[in-house]
């Protein structure tokens, strides 16, 4: 987005001159522009161009136009793209410690989550990613996860026994479901709807926005509002591009990212609420979906059953006891 300067002298005709940017920043992501991530990417682009006075031309490519998340980290290393925002799971082989965010019931609420992300814990995780040849900028939200299934209401941990649940590729999520007697099955997100419809799996865990936009609620009979886990993203930049920027433009990137992160978090909250309301409306109208809200006592029961997996990840090569305990202690 090149900036056009309009110069009008006294009594002179209007003249137009284009100011060429010194840097081009391609921001690749996989979602639509009207999602919280998509809107935040566009906000960041506009804000960085303002703060850099047009010296950085930010070009946003949504909907996997350039790369899928599975390929974008390699593209960043090559500086074929300068910025991306993959989900934490895509960093699994590079920085397994990001699986901290997969741990069930680690975060008391969104405020606690954001305090952890903005604390030394979050900085340590970003430093680990940066040490692998990227520049980790900030964490962006999807939302907390809920569970759905086709067999029975999930109220107590024992209700999970024998049910097949789709999971992302994650040792933490595998352990989480095994802890309550369920059978975890790794499956690509694109295959979940048909697998639920055909009974290949009984249930899944996801955010309200994913459950709604992918219509999982149409092929499930039961939904439990559990907020047991979290889905999020890490905004990363090409190290080669970052190193090419002078200090004043690095400061502009940081400022634009800080503002975009605040916006993204708010948009994520709004979307989570609005799309859950639509799922509720469907449930009331059709009677085909039963929604259960856990009481504080039931949440405590789930937490007790699932947090037994934490010691399995005390090894620093997995997550690390110090990171887990520091996150728990964050105010």
Short description:
About 40% of the residues lie in helices and about 20% in strands. With about 325 residues, the protein is α/β, with parallel strands linked by helices. It has one domain: D-Maltodextrin-Binding Protein, domain 2.
Structure characterization notes:
The protein has 331 residues and is an alpha/beta fold. Helix content is 40%, strand content 21%. It has a single domain, classed as Bacterial extracellular solute-binding protein, family 7 (D-Maltodextrin-Binding Protein, domain 2), CATH 3.40.190.170. The chain contains eleven helices and twelve strands. The strands form two sheets. Strands 3, 4, 5, 6, 7, 8, 9, 10, 11 and 12 form a ten-stranded mixed sheet that branches. A hairpin with a 7-residue loop joins β1 and β2. α1 packs antiparallel against α9. It is globular.
Could you give the count of β-strands?
12
**In terms of per-residue confidence, which ranges show pLDDT below 50 for 5 or more consecutive residues?**
1-18
Taking all Cα atoms into account, the compactness measure Rg is: 22 Å
Number of domain units = 1
CATH class: Alpha Beta
Helix content: 25-40%
CATH homologous superfamily designation:
Bacterial extracellular solute-binding protein, family 7
Shape: globular
Remind me, CATH topology? D-Maltodextrin-Binding Protein, domain 2
Structural class: alpha/beta
Secondary structure blueprint with pairings:
Blueprint: E1 3-7, E2 15-19, E3 23-28, H1 36-51, E4 56-61, H2 69-77, E5 83-84, H3 110-117, H4 120-130, E6 134-149, E7 164-167, H5 171-179, E8 183-186, H6 192-198, E9 203-207, H7 208-213, E10 222-225, E11 230-238, H8 239-244, H9 247-286, E12 290-293, H10 296-306, H11 321-329
Parallel strand pairs: 3-4, 3-5, 7-8, 7-9, 10-12
Antiparallel strand pairs: 1-2, 5-11, 6-9, 6-10, 6-11
């Amino acid at each position: 987005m090149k900036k056009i300067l309009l110069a009008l002298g006294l009594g002179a005709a209007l003249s137009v001159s284009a100011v060429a940017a010194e840097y081009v920043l391609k921001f690749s992501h996989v979602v639509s522009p009207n999602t919280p991530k998509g809107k935040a990417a566009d906000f960041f682009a506009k804000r960085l161009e303002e703060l850099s006075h047009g010296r950085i031309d930010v070009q946003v490519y949504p909907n996997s136009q350039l790369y899928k998340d599975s390929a974008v980290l390699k593209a960043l290393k090559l500086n074929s793209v300068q910025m991306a925002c993959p989900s934490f799971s895509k960093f699994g082989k590079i920085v397994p410690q990001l699986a901290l965010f997969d741990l069930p019931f680690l975060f008391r609420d969104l405020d606690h989550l954001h305090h952890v992300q903005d604390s030394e814990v979050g900085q340590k995780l970003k430093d680990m990613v940066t040490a692998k040849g990227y520049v980790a900028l900030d964490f962006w939200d999807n939302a907390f996860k809920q569970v759905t299934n086709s067999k029975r209401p999930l109220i107590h941990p024992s209700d999970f026994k024998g049910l097949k649940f789709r999971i992302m590729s994650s040792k933490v999520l595998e352990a989480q479901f095994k802890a309550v007697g369920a059978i975890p099955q790794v499956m690509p997100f694109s295959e979940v709807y048909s697998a639920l419809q055909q009974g290949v799996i009984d249930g899944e865990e996801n955010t309200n926005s994913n459950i709604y936009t992918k219509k999982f609620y149409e092929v499930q009979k039961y939904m439990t509002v559990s907020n047991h886990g979290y889905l999020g993203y890490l905004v990363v930049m090409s190290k080669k591009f970052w190193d090419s920027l002078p200090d004043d433009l690095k400061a502009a990137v940081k400022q634009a990212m800080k503002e975009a992160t605040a916006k993204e978090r708010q948009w994520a909250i709004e979307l989570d609420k609005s799309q859950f309301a639509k799922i509720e409306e469907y449930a009331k109208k059709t009677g085909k979906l039963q929604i259960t809200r856990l009481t504080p006592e039931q949440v405590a029961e789930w937490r007790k059953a699932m947090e037994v997996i934490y010691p399995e990840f005390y090894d620093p090569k997995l997550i690390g006891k110090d990171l887990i305990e520091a996150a728990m202690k964050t105010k």
